[in-house]
Write a structure and sequence with these properties.
The chain is mainly alpha-helical. Helix content is 71%, strand content 0%.
Length: 300
């Protein structure tokens, strides 16, 4: 339901977030729109809060106080209230951002690196290399990513490095397909043919000629991958296979407060709102960057 709401909001705000092609003479910061800057501001706020959590004047996220169970929003000493055992929601949201952001800023970029290698190789060499890469990516896509991550966590333990590697592995197919498609698009351009005529090696052509053109549209895809990673972590926590307690994460907070949503809805809705705004911001920034790259491509 959250994914559908995010997609609907993206479509609703898409016309604001995407720059108009007729204004290509304006600098990029004037063409991205206000939504881009609001989204970027939210991400900067979340990232700085997570990085500076240890020095911020907030409570210990693991400290309990049974006398302050389910304190409401804006109560004395608790801006966002407390949970079932009196833990401060604001501090837990900030410390929980560390888990989600570490996943979001590592797993998609590992997928990007692997996808670039596979996609560039498949799109440039074609033939058997392309067939082998296609079989590999199709095999990964045939297995549901959430189920696959659950199996990996079951056998290797629900630790941050294991989850990062598992999410990165299941994110490879999307990156490899986009890299392959863009490599095929640029492989027959004049600058590539000129490099081949001058005797440049295949590795040099892929790194010097194709990579700078292929990586631009893939960077916007990484932002969408970051939002998907956050959603998967929340889904795993809701299914009970996320990080073990007392580690705070947005997904775990949503799952823990769901049983008491009738009497204390803020325990679930606060982390859900923070997750929603973060995912929406990533998608809005990705839309804006993709539109900018489309404008540049169409003007060439």
């Amino acid at each position: 339901m959250m994914v559908g709401f995010v997609r609907y909001t993206r479509r609703l705000l898409g016309s604001v977030a995407r720059p108009a092609k007729k204004d290509t003479l304006q600098p990029w910061w004037a063409r991205v729109g206000l939504v881009f800057w609001f989204a970027l501001g939210w991400l900067v706020l979340i990232c700085l809060s997570a990085i500076l959590a240890d020095v911020l004047p907030i409570d210990d996220p693991l400290s309990t106080d049974l006398d302050r169970q389910f304190a409401p929003l804006f109560s004395e000493g608790s801006l966002l209230g407390t949970d079932a055992v009196g833990r401060d929601m604001l501090s837990r949201v900030i410390y929980g951002a560390r888990i989600s952001l570490q996943l979001a800023f590592t797993a998609p970029f590992l997928s990007l690196l692997a996808g670039l290698v596979l996609g560039l190789s498949a799109g440039y060499f074609r033939g058997r290399v392309d067939s082998a890469v296609s079989i590999f990516t199709d095999s990964i896509l045939a297995f549901p990513n959430i189920v696959g991550v659950m199996v990996v966590l079951f056998f290797f333990g629900a630790t941050l490095p294991v989850m990062i590697l598992a999410l990165a592995f299941f994110g490879i197919p999307a990156e490899a397909r986009v890299a392959r498609a863009n490599t095929i698009l640029f492989a027959e351009r004049e600058f590539v043919l000129a490099a081949q005529a001058q005797g440049a090696s295949s590795l040099r052509i892929m790194v010097r000629e194709l990579l700078p053109n292929v990586i631009v549209p893939m960077l916007s895809l990484v932002l969408f991958g970051m939002s998907i990673v956050i959603i998967i972590e929340g889904s795993l926590a809701f299914l009970g296979v996320g990080f073990p307690p007392p580690t705070p994460s947005w997904g775990k907070m949503i799952a823990d407060g769901f049983e008491d949503i009738g009497r204390a809805p803020h325990v679930t809705l606060v982390p859900a709102a923070v997750m929603f705004l973060t995912i929406l911001s990533l998608n809005m920034i990705g839309d804006s960057l993709r539109a900018l790259s489309d404008v540049k491509a169409s003007s060439v």
